[in-house]
Amino acid sequence: MNDPFYVTTPIYYVNDEPHLGHAYTTILADVLARYARLRGQPTFFLTGTDEHGQKVQDAAQARGISPQAHANEMVLRFQNAWENLHIANDDFIRTTQSRHTRVVTTILQDLWDKGEIYQGSYTGWYCVPDERFWTEKDLVDGNCPDCGRPVEQLEETNYFFRMSAYQEWLISYITQHPDFIRPETRRNEVLGFLRQPLSDLCISRPASRLSWGIPLPFAPDYVTYVWFDALINYVTAAGYLSDQDRFERLWPQVMHLIGKDILITHAVYWPTMLHAIGLPQPKTIFAHGWWVVEGTKMGKSLGNAVRPLDLVEIYGTDAFRYFLMRDMTLGRDADFSEAAISQRYHAELANDLGNLLHRLVNMTQRYCEGQIPAPEALPDATTSDLRTHTEILIGETFARVEALALNEALIAIMEVVGEINKYLEHTAPWKLVKQGETARAATVLYYAAEALRLTSLLLHPVLPEKTAELWERLGWQLPARLADGLHWGGLQPGAKVNSGSPLFPRI
Ligand code: MSP
User: Fold this and answer.
1) Is 22 in the pocket of ligand 1 (CB under 6 A)?
2) 293: Cβ below 6 Å to ligand 1?
3) Considering only CA atoms, which of 28, 35, 70 is closest in space to residue 320?
4) Which residues sit opposite 150 in a β-bridge?
5) pLDDT per residue over 179-206, tens digit each?
6) Which residue owns the Cα nearest ligand 1 atom 27?
7) Which residue ranges form the domains of the chain, and what is each CATH number?
8) I want to staple 318 with a disulfide (CB 3.0 to 4.6 A). Which of 6, 45, 433, 466 is the partner?
9) How far away, in angstroms, is 258 Cα from ligand 1 center?
10) Collapsing DSSP states into helix, strand and coil, what is residue 471?
Protein backbone atom coordinates (compact mmCIF):
# COMPACT_ATOMS: atom_id res chain seq x y z
CA MET A 1 0.00 0.00 0.00
CA ASN A 2 2.86 2.38 0.46
CA ASP A 3 4.08 1.93 -3.05
CA PRO A 4 4.01 5.34 -4.66
CA PHE A 5 1.21 6.24 -7.05
CA TYR A 6 2.52 7.75 -10.28
CA VAL A 7 -0.12 8.96 -12.73
CA THR A 8 0.33 10.68 -16.08
CA THR A 9 -1.87 12.41 -18.66
CA PRO A 10 -0.93 12.60 -22.33
CA ILE A 11 1.17 15.67 -22.95
CA TYR A 12 -1.03 17.95 -25.02
CA TYR A 13 -0.10 19.52 -28.32
CA VAL A 14 0.85 23.01 -27.34
CA ASN A 15 -0.88 24.43 -30.42
CA ASP A 16 -4.32 23.22 -29.38
CA GLU A 17 -6.81 25.25 -27.45
CA PRO A 18 -7.46 23.35 -24.18
CA HIS A 19 -10.80 21.60 -24.71
CA LEU A 20 -13.04 19.12 -22.95
CA GLY A 21 -10.97 16.10 -24.04
CA HIS A 22 -7.83 17.55 -22.46
CA ALA A 23 -9.73 18.75 -19.40
CA TYR A 24 -11.33 15.37 -18.81
CA THR A 25 -8.11 13.31 -18.73
CA THR A 26 -6.42 15.92 -16.59
CA ILE A 27 -9.28 16.08 -14.08
CA LEU A 28 -9.41 12.28 -13.96
CA ALA A 29 -5.69 12.11 -13.18
CA ASP A 30 -6.12 14.85 -10.58
CA VAL A 31 -8.99 13.02 -8.88
CA LEU A 32 -7.02 9.75 -8.76
CA ALA A 33 -3.97 11.56 -7.40
CA ARG A 34 -6.07 13.28 -4.73
CA TYR A 35 -7.58 9.95 -3.64
CA ALA A 36 -4.09 8.48 -3.37
CA ARG A 37 -2.95 11.44 -1.26
CA LEU A 38 -6.05 11.14 0.89
CA ARG A 39 -5.22 7.59 1.82
CA GLY A 40 -1.64 8.56 2.56
CA GLN A 41 0.12 7.19 -0.51
CA PRO A 42 3.18 9.07 -1.82
CA THR A 43 1.93 10.51 -5.10
CA PHE A 44 3.41 11.94 -8.28
CA PHE A 45 1.04 13.43 -10.83
CA LEU A 46 2.52 14.53 -14.15
CA THR A 47 1.04 16.48 -17.03
CA GLY A 48 2.60 18.73 -19.65
CA THR A 49 2.85 19.79 -23.28
CA ASP A 50 4.11 18.28 -26.52
CA GLU A 51 5.89 21.15 -28.23
CA HIS A 52 7.82 19.94 -31.27
CA GLY A 53 6.63 19.16 -34.76
CA GLN A 54 5.27 20.52 -37.99
CA LYS A 55 2.18 22.28 -36.67
CA VAL A 56 4.08 24.30 -34.11
CA GLN A 57 6.72 25.19 -36.68
CA ASP A 58 4.04 26.27 -39.18
CA ALA A 59 2.06 28.32 -36.67
CA ALA A 60 5.19 30.10 -35.43
CA GLN A 61 6.27 30.82 -38.99
CA ALA A 62 2.86 32.29 -39.81
CA ARG A 63 3.27 34.65 -36.86
CA GLY A 64 6.85 35.48 -37.75
CA ILE A 65 8.24 34.37 -34.40
CA SER A 66 10.44 31.48 -33.31
CA PRO A 67 8.75 28.16 -32.50
CA GLN A 68 10.07 28.39 -28.95
CA ALA A 69 8.61 31.86 -28.44
CA HIS A 70 5.32 30.60 -29.86
CA ALA A 71 5.31 27.57 -27.55
CA ASN A 72 6.18 29.74 -24.55
CA GLU A 73 3.06 31.75 -25.21
CA MET A 74 0.76 28.83 -25.96
CA VAL A 75 1.73 26.75 -22.95
CA LEU A 76 0.20 29.37 -20.66
CA ARG A 77 -3.25 28.50 -21.94
CA PHE A 78 -2.88 25.00 -20.58
CA GLN A 79 -1.31 26.11 -17.35
CA ASN A 80 -4.06 28.67 -16.75
CA ALA A 81 -6.79 26.22 -17.64
CA TRP A 82 -5.43 23.68 -15.16
CA GLU A 83 -5.25 26.24 -12.42
CA ASN A 84 -8.82 27.19 -13.14
CA LEU A 85 -9.90 23.55 -12.89
CA HIS A 86 -8.14 23.07 -9.51
CA ILE A 87 -5.58 20.66 -10.94
CA ALA A 88 -2.87 19.93 -8.38
CA ASN A 89 -0.18 18.37 -10.56
CA ASP A 90 3.26 17.76 -9.04
CA ASP A 91 5.16 18.46 -12.23
CA PHE A 92 4.54 19.99 -15.64
CA ILE A 93 6.85 18.80 -18.38
CA ARG A 94 7.48 20.57 -21.66
CA THR A 95 9.28 18.61 -24.35
CA THR A 96 11.43 21.62 -25.15
CA GLN A 97 12.97 21.68 -21.67
CA SER A 98 16.63 20.73 -21.56
CA ARG A 99 15.95 18.05 -18.91
CA HIS A 100 13.89 16.30 -21.59
CA THR A 101 15.94 16.90 -24.74
CA ARG A 102 18.97 15.56 -22.86
CA VAL A 103 17.19 12.30 -22.04
CA VAL A 104 15.84 11.88 -25.59
CA THR A 105 19.30 12.47 -27.03
CA THR A 106 20.91 9.96 -24.69
CA ILE A 107 18.29 7.32 -25.44
CA LEU A 108 18.68 7.81 -29.18
CA GLN A 109 22.45 7.51 -29.02
CA ASP A 110 22.16 4.43 -26.85
CA LEU A 111 19.72 2.73 -29.22
CA TRP A 112 21.89 3.66 -32.19
CA ASP A 113 24.99 2.21 -30.47
CA LYS A 114 23.10 -0.98 -29.74
CA GLY A 115 21.99 -1.32 -33.34
CA GLU A 116 18.32 -0.79 -32.47
CA ILE A 117 18.13 2.10 -34.92
CA TYR A 118 19.27 1.86 -38.54
CA GLN A 119 19.27 4.01 -41.64
CA GLY A 120 16.78 3.08 -44.32
CA SER A 121 14.55 4.58 -46.90
CA TYR A 122 11.00 5.70 -46.50
CA THR A 123 8.52 5.80 -49.33
CA GLY A 124 5.30 7.68 -48.97
CA TRP A 125 2.90 10.07 -50.64
CA TYR A 126 4.26 13.58 -50.52
CA CYS A 127 2.32 16.79 -50.96
CA VAL A 128 4.84 19.23 -52.39
CA PRO A 129 3.05 22.53 -51.57
CA ASP A 130 2.25 21.37 -48.02
CA GLU A 131 5.69 19.78 -47.64
CA ARG A 132 4.36 16.74 -45.87
CA PHE A 133 4.01 12.99 -46.19
CA TRP A 134 0.75 11.08 -46.06
CA THR A 135 0.12 7.38 -45.87
CA GLU A 136 -2.01 5.62 -48.43
CA LYS A 137 -5.00 5.54 -46.10
CA ASP A 138 -4.80 9.27 -45.31
CA LEU A 139 -5.39 10.22 -48.95
CA VAL A 140 -8.77 11.48 -50.08
CA ASP A 141 -9.50 10.30 -53.64
CA GLY A 142 -5.78 9.93 -54.09
CA ASN A 143 -5.16 13.57 -53.17
CA CYS A 144 -3.76 15.43 -50.18
CA PRO A 145 -6.36 15.29 -47.40
CA ASP A 146 -5.39 18.79 -46.30
CA CYS A 147 -5.32 20.84 -49.48
CA GLY A 148 -6.84 18.44 -52.02
CA ARG A 149 -3.95 18.80 -54.46
CA PRO A 150 -2.27 15.79 -56.10
CA VAL A 151 0.45 14.00 -54.16
CA GLU A 152 3.53 12.26 -55.53
CA GLN A 153 5.35 9.17 -54.40
CA LEU A 154 8.66 10.12 -52.86
CA GLU A 155 11.49 8.20 -51.36
CA GLU A 156 13.54 9.68 -48.56
CA THR A 157 16.39 8.44 -46.39
CA ASN A 158 15.38 8.18 -42.75
CA TYR A 159 16.13 6.38 -39.52
CA PHE A 160 14.11 3.46 -38.22
CA PHE A 161 13.65 1.81 -34.86
CA ARG A 162 13.57 -2.03 -35.05
CA MET A 163 10.09 -2.24 -33.59
CA SER A 164 9.20 -5.32 -35.63
CA ALA A 165 11.75 -7.36 -33.70
CA TYR A 166 9.62 -7.05 -30.58
CA GLN A 167 6.25 -8.15 -31.87
CA GLU A 168 6.32 -11.65 -30.34
CA TRP A 169 7.74 -10.36 -27.11
CA LEU A 170 4.99 -7.73 -26.85
CA ILE A 171 2.20 -10.19 -27.55
CA SER A 172 3.38 -12.47 -24.79
CA TYR A 173 3.94 -9.59 -22.37
CA ILE A 174 0.38 -8.36 -22.89
CA THR A 175 -0.98 -11.88 -22.58
CA GLN A 176 0.86 -12.49 -19.34
CA HIS A 177 -0.03 -9.15 -17.72
CA PRO A 178 -3.80 -8.78 -17.74
CA ASP A 179 -3.67 -5.37 -16.03
CA PHE A 180 -1.14 -3.87 -18.41
CA ILE A 181 -3.63 -2.54 -20.95
CA ARG A 182 -7.06 -1.64 -19.60
CA PRO A 183 -9.95 -1.97 -20.02
CA GLU A 184 -10.12 -5.38 -21.61
CA THR A 185 -11.70 -4.11 -24.85
CA ARG A 186 -8.60 -2.00 -25.46
CA ARG A 187 -6.31 -4.87 -24.61
CA ASN A 188 -8.08 -6.97 -27.22
CA GLU A 189 -7.84 -4.15 -29.70
CA VAL A 190 -4.06 -4.03 -29.27
CA LEU A 191 -3.76 -7.82 -29.54
CA GLY A 192 -5.87 -7.60 -32.71
CA PHE A 193 -3.57 -4.94 -34.13
CA LEU A 194 -0.60 -7.19 -33.37
CA ARG A 195 -2.04 -9.96 -35.50
CA GLN A 196 -0.76 -8.06 -38.56
CA PRO A 197 3.00 -7.98 -39.01
CA LEU A 198 4.46 -5.05 -37.11
CA SER A 199 6.71 -2.78 -39.17
CA ASP A 200 9.72 -0.82 -38.02
CA LEU A 201 9.08 2.71 -36.83
CA CYS A 202 10.38 5.70 -38.77
CA ILE A 203 11.75 7.94 -36.02
CA SER A 204 13.28 10.78 -38.01
CA ARG A 205 12.39 13.68 -40.27
CA PRO A 206 14.98 15.42 -42.46
CA ALA A 207 15.73 18.79 -40.90
CA SER A 208 15.42 20.34 -44.36
CA ARG A 209 11.66 19.66 -44.19
CA LEU A 210 11.08 19.99 -40.48
CA SER A 211 13.63 21.66 -38.28
CA TRP A 212 11.55 22.04 -35.10
CA GLY A 213 12.54 18.91 -33.24
CA ILE A 214 15.34 17.26 -31.31
CA PRO A 215 18.30 16.59 -33.63
CA LEU A 216 19.41 12.96 -33.91
CA PRO A 217 22.77 12.86 -32.12
CA PHE A 218 24.25 10.53 -34.76
CA ALA A 219 22.74 12.37 -37.75
CA PRO A 220 22.29 16.06 -36.93
CA ASP A 221 20.60 16.83 -40.26
CA TYR A 222 17.58 14.90 -38.98
CA VAL A 223 15.18 15.63 -36.13
CA THR A 224 13.30 13.14 -33.98
CA TYR A 225 9.75 12.11 -34.86
CA VAL A 226 7.42 13.84 -32.37
CA TRP A 227 5.87 10.71 -30.91
CA PHE A 228 9.25 9.14 -30.22
CA ASP A 229 10.25 12.35 -28.45
CA ALA A 230 6.92 12.81 -26.64
CA LEU A 231 6.52 9.35 -25.11
CA ILE A 232 9.89 9.68 -23.41
CA ASN A 233 8.51 12.54 -21.27
CA TYR A 234 7.11 9.96 -18.86
CA VAL A 235 10.56 8.69 -17.90
CA THR A 236 12.25 12.08 -18.02
CA ALA A 237 9.94 13.51 -15.37
CA ALA A 238 10.28 10.44 -13.15
CA GLY A 239 14.03 11.09 -12.92
CA TYR A 240 15.47 8.79 -15.56
CA LEU A 241 19.19 9.61 -15.99
CA SER A 242 18.91 12.41 -13.43
CA ASP A 243 17.65 10.87 -10.18
CA GLN A 244 17.99 7.13 -10.44
CA ASP A 245 16.64 6.35 -6.94
CA ARG A 246 13.51 8.28 -7.49
CA PHE A 247 13.11 6.80 -10.95
CA GLU A 248 13.36 3.26 -9.67
CA ARG A 249 10.76 3.91 -7.00
CA LEU A 250 8.30 5.62 -9.30
CA TRP A 251 8.62 4.06 -12.70
CA PRO A 252 7.29 0.53 -12.12
CA GLN A 253 4.14 2.02 -10.51
CA VAL A 254 3.17 4.34 -13.33
CA MET A 255 -0.35 4.52 -14.69
CA HIS A 256 -0.71 6.19 -18.08
CA LEU A 257 -4.16 7.66 -18.64
CA ILE A 258 -4.91 8.20 -22.30
CA GLY A 259 -7.82 8.58 -24.70
CA LYS A 260 -8.66 5.63 -26.90
CA ASP A 261 -7.37 7.42 -30.02
CA ILE A 262 -3.77 7.26 -28.84
CA LEU A 263 -3.80 3.62 -27.81
CA ILE A 264 -1.39 2.20 -30.40
CA THR A 265 1.33 4.75 -29.77
CA HIS A 266 1.12 4.05 -26.02
CA ALA A 267 0.51 0.31 -26.09
CA VAL A 268 2.75 -0.67 -29.03
CA TYR A 269 5.40 1.97 -29.77
CA TRP A 270 6.11 2.85 -26.16
CA PRO A 271 6.44 -0.67 -24.69
CA THR A 272 8.78 -1.75 -27.50
CA MET A 273 10.85 1.41 -27.05
CA LEU A 274 11.13 0.77 -23.31
CA HIS A 275 12.03 -2.84 -23.92
CA ALA A 276 14.78 -1.88 -26.34
CA ILE A 277 16.11 0.71 -23.89
CA GLY A 278 16.12 -2.00 -21.21
CA LEU A 279 13.49 -0.46 -18.93
CA PRO A 280 10.55 -2.13 -17.20
CA GLN A 281 7.03 -1.61 -18.51
CA PRO A 282 4.47 0.77 -17.02
CA LYS A 283 2.11 -0.86 -14.56
CA THR A 284 -1.03 0.19 -16.43
CA ILE A 285 -2.03 1.92 -19.62
CA PHE A 286 -5.66 2.91 -19.27
CA ALA A 287 -7.58 4.19 -22.29
CA HIS A 288 -10.82 6.03 -21.61
CA GLY A 289 -13.57 6.68 -24.12
CA TRP A 290 -14.64 9.94 -25.69
CA TRP A 291 -17.04 12.61 -24.71
CA VAL A 292 -19.54 12.83 -27.53
CA VAL A 293 -22.38 15.14 -28.42
CA GLU A 294 -25.07 13.38 -30.40
CA GLY A 295 -22.58 10.76 -31.45
CA THR A 296 -19.80 13.14 -32.55
CA LYS A 297 -16.47 13.30 -30.76
CA MET A 298 -15.98 16.60 -29.01
CA GLY A 299 -12.85 18.51 -29.49
CA LYS A 300 -11.77 21.74 -30.95
CA SER A 301 -13.32 20.82 -34.30
CA LEU A 302 -16.68 21.15 -32.61
CA GLY A 303 -16.02 24.81 -31.96
CA ASN A 304 -19.49 25.90 -32.99
CA ALA A 305 -21.33 23.71 -30.47
CA VAL A 306 -21.36 24.03 -26.66
CA ARG A 307 -17.98 25.06 -25.41
CA PRO A 308 -17.83 22.78 -22.40
CA LEU A 309 -15.20 24.83 -20.64
CA ASP A 310 -17.57 27.81 -20.75
CA LEU A 311 -19.89 25.84 -18.51
CA VAL A 312 -17.28 26.05 -15.77
CA GLU A 313 -18.17 29.70 -15.45
CA ILE A 314 -21.84 28.91 -14.98
CA TYR A 315 -21.70 25.85 -12.72
CA GLY A 316 -18.32 26.33 -11.11
CA THR A 317 -15.19 24.20 -11.34
CA ASP A 318 -16.14 21.65 -8.71
CA ALA A 319 -19.57 20.89 -10.15
CA PHE A 320 -17.97 20.52 -13.59
CA ARG A 321 -15.45 18.05 -12.16
CA TYR A 322 -18.27 16.19 -10.43
CA PHE A 323 -20.26 15.89 -13.63
CA LEU A 324 -17.32 14.57 -15.67
CA MET A 325 -16.47 11.94 -13.05
CA ARG A 326 -20.10 11.01 -12.43
CA ASP A 327 -21.28 10.70 -16.02
CA MET A 328 -18.52 8.69 -17.66
CA THR A 329 -18.24 4.96 -17.13
CA LEU A 330 -14.52 4.59 -17.58
CA GLY A 331 -13.66 2.92 -20.83
CA ARG A 332 -16.89 3.82 -22.61
CA ASP A 333 -17.97 6.91 -24.49
CA ALA A 334 -20.21 9.34 -22.62
CA ASP A 335 -22.69 12.00 -23.60
CA PHE A 336 -22.01 15.58 -22.80
CA SER A 337 -24.91 17.97 -22.47
CA GLU A 338 -25.64 21.07 -20.49
CA ALA A 339 -29.02 19.63 -19.47
CA ALA A 340 -27.25 16.70 -17.81
CA ILE A 341 -24.89 18.98 -15.89
CA SER A 342 -27.78 21.13 -14.75
CA GLN A 343 -29.71 18.09 -13.59
CA ARG A 344 -26.80 16.71 -11.53
CA TYR A 345 -26.01 20.13 -10.19
CA HIS A 346 -29.47 20.85 -8.89
CA ALA A 347 -30.55 17.39 -7.76
CA GLU A 348 -27.35 16.02 -6.28
CA LEU A 349 -25.14 18.93 -5.36
CA ALA A 350 -27.58 21.73 -4.53
CA ASN A 351 -30.43 19.65 -3.05
CA ASP A 352 -28.90 16.58 -1.50
CA LEU A 353 -25.53 17.90 -0.40
CA GLY A 354 -25.93 21.67 -0.16
CA ASN A 355 -29.29 21.59 1.60
CA LEU A 356 -28.12 18.98 4.05
CA LEU A 357 -25.31 21.23 5.17
CA HIS A 358 -27.65 24.17 5.37
CA ARG A 359 -30.18 22.32 7.54
CA LEU A 360 -27.53 20.94 9.85
CA VAL A 361 -25.89 24.29 10.43
CA ASN A 362 -29.30 25.90 11.00
CA MET A 363 -30.41 23.34 13.54
CA THR A 364 -27.08 23.45 15.34
CA GLN A 365 -27.49 27.20 15.64
CA ARG A 366 -31.06 26.97 16.86
CA TYR A 367 -30.82 24.05 19.23
CA CYS A 368 -27.16 23.87 20.27
CA GLU A 369 -26.00 27.49 20.47
CA GLY A 370 -24.10 27.18 17.26
CA GLN A 371 -21.74 24.50 18.54
CA ILE A 372 -21.32 20.90 17.50
CA PRO A 373 -23.13 19.05 20.32
CA ALA A 374 -21.71 16.12 22.28
CA PRO A 375 -23.46 12.83 21.38
CA GLU A 376 -24.73 12.20 24.89
CA ALA A 377 -27.63 9.83 24.42
CA LEU A 378 -26.89 6.23 23.49
CA PRO A 379 -27.37 5.75 19.76
CA ASP A 380 -30.44 3.78 18.71
CA ALA A 381 -30.34 1.23 15.88
CA THR A 382 -30.90 3.75 13.04
CA THR A 383 -28.19 5.96 14.47
CA SER A 384 -25.70 3.10 14.74
CA ASP A 385 -26.57 2.06 11.19
CA LEU A 386 -25.76 5.50 9.88
CA ARG A 387 -22.34 5.32 11.49
CA THR A 388 -21.71 1.79 10.21
CA HIS A 389 -22.73 2.67 6.65
CA THR A 390 -20.51 5.73 6.67
CA GLU A 391 -17.53 3.78 7.95
CA ILE A 392 -18.04 0.99 5.43
CA LEU A 393 -18.22 3.60 2.68
CA ILE A 394 -14.59 4.61 3.31
CA GLY A 395 -13.09 1.26 2.32
CA GLU A 396 -15.60 0.78 -0.48
CA THR A 397 -14.79 4.14 -1.99
CA PHE A 398 -11.08 3.44 -2.16
CA ALA A 399 -11.75 0.00 -3.63
CA ARG A 400 -13.95 1.54 -6.34
CA VAL A 401 -11.40 4.21 -7.09
CA GLU A 402 -8.72 1.58 -7.40
CA ALA A 403 -10.95 -0.28 -9.86
CA LEU A 404 -11.35 3.06 -11.68
CA ALA A 405 -15.10 2.88 -11.15
CA LEU A 406 -15.35 6.54 -10.23
CA ASN A 407 -18.95 6.91 -11.23
CA GLU A 408 -19.88 4.02 -8.93
CA ALA A 409 -17.83 5.53 -6.13
CA LEU A 410 -19.77 8.77 -6.48
CA ILE A 411 -23.12 7.02 -6.67
CA ALA A 412 -22.39 5.17 -3.42
CA ILE A 413 -21.17 8.30 -1.65
CA MET A 414 -24.28 10.21 -2.69
CA GLU A 415 -26.41 7.35 -1.43
CA VAL A 416 -24.99 7.87 2.03
CA VAL A 417 -25.61 11.61 1.68
CA GLY A 418 -29.22 10.63 0.89
CA GLU A 419 -29.27 8.40 3.94
CA ILE A 420 -28.19 11.28 6.19
CA ASN A 421 -31.07 13.35 4.80
CA LYS A 422 -33.52 10.52 5.49
CA TYR A 423 -32.06 10.05 8.95
CA LEU A 424 -32.87 13.64 9.80
CA GLU A 425 -36.41 13.26 8.46
CA HIS A 426 -36.89 10.10 10.42
CA THR A 427 -35.42 11.22 13.75
CA ALA A 428 -36.82 14.78 13.41
CA PRO A 429 -34.57 16.60 15.91
CA TRP A 430 -36.98 19.58 15.87
CA LYS A 431 -39.64 17.33 17.42
CA LEU A 432 -37.18 15.88 19.92
CA VAL A 433 -36.33 19.38 21.07
CA LYS A 434 -40.05 20.24 21.46
CA GLN A 435 -40.52 17.10 23.52
CA GLY A 436 -37.62 18.09 25.75
CA GLU A 437 -35.43 15.22 24.56
CA THR A 438 -32.41 17.45 24.09
CA ALA A 439 -29.76 14.78 24.72
CA ARG A 440 -31.30 12.66 21.96
CA ALA A 441 -31.50 15.67 19.62
CA ALA A 442 -27.83 16.42 20.29
CA THR A 443 -26.85 12.85 19.42
CA VAL A 444 -28.82 12.98 16.19
CA LEU A 445 -27.21 16.24 15.15
CA TYR A 446 -23.75 15.01 16.03
CA TYR A 447 -24.17 11.79 14.09
CA ALA A 448 -25.60 13.53 11.05
CA ALA A 449 -22.86 16.16 11.03
CA GLU A 450 -20.10 13.61 11.52
CA ALA A 451 -21.48 11.39 8.77
CA LEU A 452 -21.55 14.43 6.50
CA ARG A 453 -17.98 15.33 7.43
CA LEU A 454 -16.76 11.85 6.52
CA THR A 455 -18.71 11.54 3.29
CA SER A 456 -17.57 14.99 2.24
CA LEU A 457 -13.98 13.97 2.90
CA LEU A 458 -14.55 11.15 0.41
CA LEU A 459 -15.88 13.75 -2.04
CA HIS A 460 -12.90 16.01 -1.49
CA PRO A 461 -10.83 14.67 -4.43
CA VAL A 462 -13.69 15.57 -6.77
CA LEU A 463 -14.91 18.74 -5.04
CA PRO A 464 -11.73 20.17 -3.49
CA GLU A 465 -12.95 23.72 -3.05
CA LYS A 466 -16.56 23.09 -2.07
CA THR A 467 -15.69 20.50 0.56
CA ALA A 468 -13.20 22.89 2.15
CA GLU A 469 -16.01 25.45 2.31
CA LEU A 470 -18.30 22.83 3.81
CA TRP A 471 -15.84 22.00 6.58
CA GLU A 472 -15.40 25.63 7.43
CA ARG A 473 -19.18 25.72 8.05
CA LEU A 474 -18.97 22.60 10.21
CA GLY A 475 -16.11 24.02 12.23
CA TRP A 476 -13.66 21.35 11.10
CA GLN A 477 -10.19 21.60 9.57
CA LEU A 478 -8.41 19.13 7.35
CA PRO A 479 -5.59 17.55 9.39
CA ALA A 480 -2.01 17.79 8.11
CA ARG A 481 -2.06 14.05 7.44
CA LEU A 482 -5.24 13.74 5.44
CA ALA A 483 -5.74 10.07 6.27
CA ASP A 484 -6.10 11.05 9.95
CA GLY A 485 -9.45 12.54 9.04
CA LEU A 486 -10.79 9.21 7.80
CA HIS A 487 -12.09 7.97 11.15
CA TRP A 488 -15.40 8.37 12.89
CA GLY A 489 -15.27 11.02 15.58
CA GLY A 490 -13.35 13.79 13.85
CA LEU A 491 -15.88 16.52 14.66
CA GLN A 492 -15.13 17.99 18.06
CA PRO A 493 -18.10 18.82 20.30
CA GLY A 494 -17.96 22.52 21.02
CA ALA A 495 -16.65 23.45 17.56
CA LYS A 496 -18.43 26.52 16.26
CA VAL A 497 -20.50 26.14 13.08
CA ASN A 498 -20.82 28.98 10.60
CA SER A 499 -23.71 29.93 8.37
CA GLY A 500 -23.17 31.31 4.89
CA SER A 501 -24.61 31.48 1.42
CA PRO A 502 -25.70 28.20 -0.23
CA LEU A 503 -22.83 25.91 -1.16
CA PHE A 504 -24.37 25.33 -4.60
CA PRO A 505 -26.71 28.23 -5.35
CA ARG A 506 -29.56 27.47 -7.76
CA ILE A 507 -28.89 28.60 -11.29
N1 MSP B 1 0.48 15.03 -27.99
C2 MSP B 1 -0.27 13.82 -28.09
C3 MSP B 1 -0.07 12.95 -26.89
C4 MSP B 1 1.35 12.59 -26.59
S5 MSP B 1 1.48 11.69 -25.12
C6 MSP B 1 3.06 11.14 -25.08
C7 MSP B 1 -1.76 14.14 -28.22
N8 MSP B 1 -2.12 15.34 -27.79
S9 MSP B 1 -3.59 15.94 -27.84
O10 MSP B 1 -3.49 17.33 -27.46
O11 MSP B 1 -4.21 15.66 -29.08
O12 MSP B 1 -4.33 15.25 -26.65
C13 MSP B 1 -5.31 14.45 -26.88
C14 MSP B 1 -5.87 13.82 -25.64
O15 MSP B 1 -7.18 14.34 -25.42
C16 MSP B 1 -6.02 12.34 -25.93
O17 MSP B 1 -5.92 11.55 -24.79
C18 MSP B 1 -7.44 12.30 -26.48
O19 MSP B 1 -8.00 11.05 -26.38
C20 MSP B 1 -8.12 13.30 -25.59
N21 MSP B 1 -9.34 13.75 -26.23
C22 MSP B 1 -9.49 14.57 -27.30
N23 MSP B 1 -10.83 14.70 -27.55
C24 MSP B 1 -11.54 13.93 -26.68
C25 MSP B 1 -12.91 13.79 -26.34
N26 MSP B 1 -13.88 14.32 -27.04
N27 MSP B 1 -13.23 13.08 -25.23
C28 MSP B 1 -12.27 12.58 -24.39
N29 MSP B 1 -10.99 12.73 -24.67
C30 MSP B 1 -10.57 13.12 -25.98
O31 MSP B 1 -2.50 13.31 -28.66
Assistant:
1) yes
2) no
3) 28
4) 143
5) 999 999 999 999 999 999 999 999 999 9
6) 290
7) 5-288 (3.40.50.620), 338-485 (1.10.730.10)
8) 466
9) 7
10) helix
